[in-house]
């Protein structure tokens, strides 16, 4: 069962849009050249293709919802090439995503549960195409590629009266990519606001091996982000 879009994501986007709609009209954003900025990234994330190796051979299932509401933040540096006659922006963005919980279980006797608290850091290089308008608003589309580190802290627990648990940490470095669309809006001659959507795939997840040799892996960690951003123009 997948979660519906959380009301908190809808509310945060509505509040941000209200602020952007109050800005005075200008002919263009004036964002030519170098800029620095940041983004808040409320998101719905999921881990796909979970597999158990080294277990007891019983059925292996997900526990609970397929998705989790998460949050991230990023810092970025970019350059708008319009001054050189190229209608593109390029960016380097470093982000950190807080805990994405996903739980799995081997339906053995007794059952064995795996609770993974997953966080992710990433460094992405992105290219965006801005659509010029006669208003302060500039729609854009783009995408990025880069590196992501999925950091798992996983607790293995027997579903019996012993209360036996084991917790291990493991990091996995991956190729990552993203697709993004949104709109930038002039707030002042120096500041630009942004709201958008981004799909990101941060690659494989690996819990590492427990003392019994069992190990949970997943094909991909994906995220659907609501982007709430600002940039300062130099």
Question: Structural class, please?
Answer: mainly beta
Low-confidence stretches: 1-5, 23-28
Record the strand order, biggest sheet.
1-4-5-6-7-8-9-12
The topology string of helices and strands comes to: HEEEEEEEEEEEE
CATH class: Mainly Beta
CATH topology: Porin
Oligomer: single chain
The amount of beta strand, in percent, is over 45%
Average the pLDDT over all residues and give the rounded result. 86
Gyration radius, rounded:
21 Å
Number of helices: 1
Domain module count: 1
* CATH architecture classification name: Beta Barrel
Please provide the count of β strands: 12
For the largest beta-sheet, the strand count, sense and barrel status come to: 8 strands, antiparallel, barrel
Straight-line N-to-C gap: 47 Å
Binned, the helix content reads under 10%
Shape: elongated
Chart the SSEs and their pairings.
Blueprint lengths: L6 H15 L11 E16 L2 E3 L6 E4 L3 E14 L7 E19 L5 E19 L6 E22 L6 E22 L4 E11 L3 E2 L8 E4 L1 E14 L1
Antiparallel strand pairs: 1-4, 1-12, 2-11, 3-5, 4-5, 5-6, 6-7, 7-8, 8-9, 9-12, 10-11
Please tell me about this protein's structure.
This protein is mainly β. It has one domain: Porin, CATH 2.40.160. It has one helix and twelve strands. Strands 1-4-5-6-7-8-9-12 form an eight-stranded antiparallel β-barrel. Strands 2-11-10 form a three-stranded antiparallel sheet, with no helix packed on it. Strand 7 and strand 8 form a beta hairpin. It is elongated, with a radius of gyration of 21 Å. The chain starts with 6 loop residues before the first helix and ends with a strand. 32% of the residues are buried. The N terminus is likely disordered.
